[in-house]
């Protein structure tokens, strides 16, 4: 479920109401174009960053779909910093774009800037990640995955992985969390725990859990520390492929075999994840589809035209076990 808890606006220190923070990267992916004599729709898009293979595929998908739709895209990379995203959104408000879309780096602290957009009658569409807000009218819809369900699916597929590996008895689990405060980190952990508490309270235990910030470097560093403090870990649940791949490097450096000595379940399904899985180093992947561009552009047009859209437009996804990796690899689109 999309989190709808009331939340007071966090005090957000923002340097300027206009212009982007110094370290954010902005580009206009299309020049002002016209279609059929009327001015092209202008979309301001604030991206989280470029922390993972998933994110790169998502950025490409958004840029390509905007181009195909003939929109003027004002794109900004927040480099995983909320203050950069807030500055970008403020800049889009000042520029008077038609629609603002963004993938929020964290769930809280958006009310103030979203109220500014509302005051200027600029509709906001969330993509990929949700926010917690005190006022539901501050955004129109969310186009993205059900992260809680991804967490549940990770736990369910781990049951199969353990069975296949012939693992009996207690299961010591290490969890590599995504960015602290981000919807996919909170909700994947929640969904996984839900299944664990309901069905495996006696045998599964998360013995260590820490953020690797959704990056390969983070995954490697944190997994190395996990192995120091808990050398007898049975399973790694990584909230994305990139952290899982970083962790594989740490596991190999510690003289262990990823996928055998430590069973690994990750989320995303990017090509590098599938390569690691086809090499036997990841045991299962829960897919999270980054190709949201076409769906987003459709919704943006509807919102601009004043049409009613669903509150949450969910993405369809699958799960993959290791024995499916080789066959699936050539068909992976990202
Ligand atoms: O919000 C989606 C998550 O963000 C992806 O699972 C992760 O790889 C990315 O950084």
Verbal overview:
- There is one protein chain.
- With 334 residues, this protein is α/β, with parallel strands linked by helices.
- It has a seven-stranded mixed beta sheet, sandwiched between helices. A six-stranded mixed beta sheet has the order 10-9-11-12-13-15, sandwiched between helices.
- Mean pLDDT is 91; it is low at 1-23 and 30-36.
- It contains ten helices and 15 strands.
- 52% of the residues are buried.
- The protein is 38% helix and 20% strand.
- The chain has two domains: 25-144 and 290-315, Response regulator (Rossmann fold, 3-Layer(aba) Sandwich), CATH 3.40.50.2300; 147-288, Rossmann fold.
- Alpha-L-arabinofuranose binds at residues 51-52, 54-55, 128-129, 184, 214, 240, 242, 267-268, 288.
Salient structural properties:
334 residues, alpha/beta, Rossmann fold, 7-stranded mixed beta sheet, 6-stranded mixed beta sheet, 38% helix, elongated, disordered N terminus, binds alpha-L-arabinofuranose
Please summarize what this structure is.
With 334 residues, this protein is an alpha/beta fold. It has helices at 53-69, 82-95, 111-119, 147-165, 183-199, 216-229, 241-253, 271-278, 293-304, 325-328, and strands spanning 25-28, 34-35, 38-39, 42-47, 72-77, 99-102, 124-127, 141-144, 171-177, 204-211, 235-238, 263-268, 284-287, 312-314, 319-321. The chain folds into 2 domains: 25-144 and 290-315, Response regulator (Rossmann fold, 3-Layer(aba) Sandwich), CATH 3.40.50.2300; 147-288, Response regulator (Rossmann fold, 3-Layer(aba) Sandwich).
